[in-house]
Design brief:
The structure holds two protein chains of two kinds. Chain A is of the alpha/beta class. Chain A contains twelve helices and eleven strands. Helices cover about 40% and strands about 15% of the residues of chain A. In chain A, the strands form two sheets. Chain A has an eight-stranded mixed beta sheet with strand order 3-2-5-6-7-8-1-9, with helices on both faces. Chain B has two domains: about 90 residues, Elongation Factor Tu (Ef-tu), domain 3 (Beta Barrel); about 130 residues, 3-Layer(aba) Sandwich (Rossmann fold). In chain B, the strands form three sheets. Chain B has a seven-stranded mixed beta sheet with strand order 10-9-8-7-11-12-15, sandwiched between helices. In chain B, strands 4-3-6-1-2-5 form a six-stranded antiparallel beta sheet. The chains are: A alpha/beta, B alpha/beta.
Chain lengths: ~350, ~270
């Protein structure tokens, strides 16, 4: 009986629904009374998440790679009072999330929903948020998700996945709650023909192949860990020369989640995002600081992502989004470092 | 953990007494608003309202639940505020956090304890716990080192421990004064004076990083197995919950996986002494 249930559910999970773009946009406008709807919208160079309203539904981007801001900011605000009463907030729908960001949630969930110390603020936001992932049919210069076995499309963690084909919006069901959302609020109909599904699956294959080709020679996740772990100190001294400890790489990273607790009167605590790249991150009251030297801080980030976090968690600490490369004002390209180490 | 417990919220505790241990070290006696349970060697985050919080291992007995003692060295911003606090003031407590001393593993053993400076604080709590199970232990030897006689903390403790059968204590200072009639030298110099059966022994080390480093090296030279040396590690434990990342030491979160580790667990981790 249970197996039958699983089979039926898996069939549903793979279900595709379609809706005319104009109807989809009309449904979104109607829904915006009930939900806070955020969608990746056109914003010059890279898409940016915007609150959906009547005026901007036409600006929503589809089939595109990453918005400039990582998904984590919806769950881990830069600053948050973590002793305030937890108020029931409006439910949210986030549309256009690339799989590099969706996959990052696996690690965030492990850290913040850890059963021994569950963060109720993070949990509340996760439970109140529907994620509609975007399949990437385009590729940006530094995208390298496939190198770390992250596909350029989602098949789990998110609730729905979205593709625009012509003037048809196609939605793929990825979770039970995603299915409920779709059937309750959108006038989409199940895709019965094979053309649409075959088109999407072909695009998945093509994009994966291009990404693989593009990143040929870039070591995979495990090998990167070994290379980083055994790299000579000279490597870190050399490559950290252009680092100014601005922390942009960690702020923009979908998996970096370090924070500081700041005390406020009334025994309130504010959780503020922090970064191991800032001087003083590990300084203790007595003055000892194991990361006082820049090359050590620089190495720490890579050790954390490719050696230490993998030893502790199953979620990836780098999903290959490439944002840290784009954000670095010193033009430090981690992939160039790893290619060099792999030689 | 029960659902909807806020892990960031502190329990209130009233400061009832401040004991000056040395010019830089004070012990704060706190009455928590409800009974507080901890294992010896676990730590708490102690907060000064609106100023900040810092990690400390309680120095009181883990068997006492309505009263908590925390020994604090004035060494930074938050601890300076703490040193100015008066009885009647309210403090915040989060915790207890982490993995403490595995007291049951010490049964049938000769327990060698080496403390340096304010590192005697967690050890005092351990000594209370060991005193409670003294029948199950072979021997407890405490070696304590501080910079000067006036830096020695818990002065009445030593006389009391020396009266307990199976307990013995040794003290040393780097710089003696005219009245000092005990040992002079670093804490490892006391190891030449003690009689201990290493095969039946475990060693516990707590103190400043440099003291921990050289004591561990000496214990290894003496033949202590790596998994019989227990170290209480100090890092910048900000959240205590294995989330904030500040106390990451290799693959370990010191706050959650420690703060007590065996040397065997840490030996391949870089920069453990800094």
């Amino acid at each position: 009986m249970f197996n039958i249930f699983i089979c039926v559910y898996l069939t549903l999970m793979n279900s595709y629904y379609s809706i005319k773009r104009e109807n989809w946009e009309a449904d979104l406008i109607k829904l915006s009374d009930l939900f806070g709807i955020y969608a990746a919208t056109e914003n010059g160079h890279l898409p940016e998440y915007e609150l959906v309203n009547k005026a901007n539904t036409g600006k929503i981007v589809y089939n595109k790679p990453k918005p400039s801001t990582p998904l984590k900011t919806f769950f881990l605000p830069v600053k948050e009072n973590v002793t305030a009463d937890l108020l029931p907030g409006k439910q949210r729908i986030i549309i256009g999330v690339p799989n590099c960001d969706v996959s990052a949630l696996r690690l965030l969930d492990e850290i913040y929903l850890d059963s021994s110390f569950e963060d109720i603020y993070y949990k509340n936001k996760r439970e109140n948020t529907y994620i509609i992932a975007s399949d990437c049919f385009d590729i940006l210069e530094h995208c390298h998700c496939v190198t770390y076995n992250v596909m350029p499309y989602s098949d789990s963690i998110a609730d729905l996945a979205i593709v625009l084909k012509g003037d048809e919006v196609v939605l793929r069901i990825l979770s039970e709650r995603g299915e409920q959302l779709l059937k309750t609020h959108f006038s989409a109909v199940q895709v019965t023909g094979k053309d649409v599904i075959s088109y999407i699956e072909t695009r998945h294959r093509e994009v994966t192949e291009i990404l693989t080709r593009m990143n040929k020679g870039l070591p995979d996740y495990r090998m990167t860990g070994d290379l980083v772990n055994y790299a000579d100190d000279k490597v870190w001294h050399h490559h950290s020369q252009r680092c100014v400890s601005c922390g942009a790489c960690t702020a923009i990273c979908p998996t970096c989640t370090c924070f500081l607790l700041i005390d406020k009167p009334g025994f309130h605590k504010v959780k503020q995002m922090d970064a191991c790249q800032y001087p003083g991150f590990e300084r203790v009251a007595g003055g000892e600081d194991s990361l006082s030297e820049l090359p050590k801080r620089f190495r720490n980030r890579y050790m954390c992502k490719y050696v230490w976090k993998p030893a502790k968690f199953s979620g990836l600490a780098c999903t290959g989004c490439g944002r840290c490369i784009e954000a670095c004002i010193g033009k430090i390209n981690k992939n160039e470092i790893f290619r060099e180490l792999a030689k | 953990m029960p659902a909807d417990v806020n892990i960031y919220k502190a329990l209130r505790a009233e400061l009832t007494e401040v004991i000056t241990e040395s010019p830089l070290i004070k012990t704060f006696v706190l009455i928590p608003e409800k009974e507080f349970f901890f294992d010896t060697g676990q730590f708490i985050e102690l907060a000064v309202d609106g100023i900040g919080e810092a990690p400390f291992t309680p120095s009181s007995s883990p068997l006492v639940h309505d009263r908590l003692e925390v020994t604090v060295m004035k060494t930074g911003y938050v601890t300076e505020y703490m040193h100015n606090m008066k009885p009647g003031d309210l403090m915040g407590i989060r915790g207890p956090y982490g993995r403490g001393y595995p007291v049951e593993k010490f049964f049938g053993k000769e327990v060698l304890i080496l403390g340096g400076g304010c590192g005697l604080a967690p050890i005092r709590s351990l000594l209370y716990a060991l005193e409670h199970v003294v029948d199950k232990l072979e021997k407890v030897t405490l070696c304590y080192g501080s910079k000067t006689p006036s830096d020695c903390v818990y002065k009445p403790l030593f006389a009391r421990l020396n009266k307990i059968d199976k307990f013995e204590t040794f003290r040393t200072v780097d710089k003696p004064d005219d009245e000092w009639n005990e040992s002079v030298g670093v804490v490892t110099s006391l190891l030449n004076r003690i009689h201990i059966d290493i095969d039946k022994s475990v060693a516990v080390v707590c103190g400043p990083p440099v003291m921990m480093k050289f004591t561990t090296i000496r214990l290894l030279e003496m033949g202590y197995p790596e998994n019989k040396i227990y170290l209480s590690m100090e890092k910048n434990m900000s959240c205590g919950l294995g989330k904030c990342g500040h106390c990451m030491m290799g693959k370990f979160f010191v706050c959650k996986d420690g703060p007590v580790f065996t040397y065997n667990e840490l030996k391949d981790t870089p920069d453990i002494w800094s």
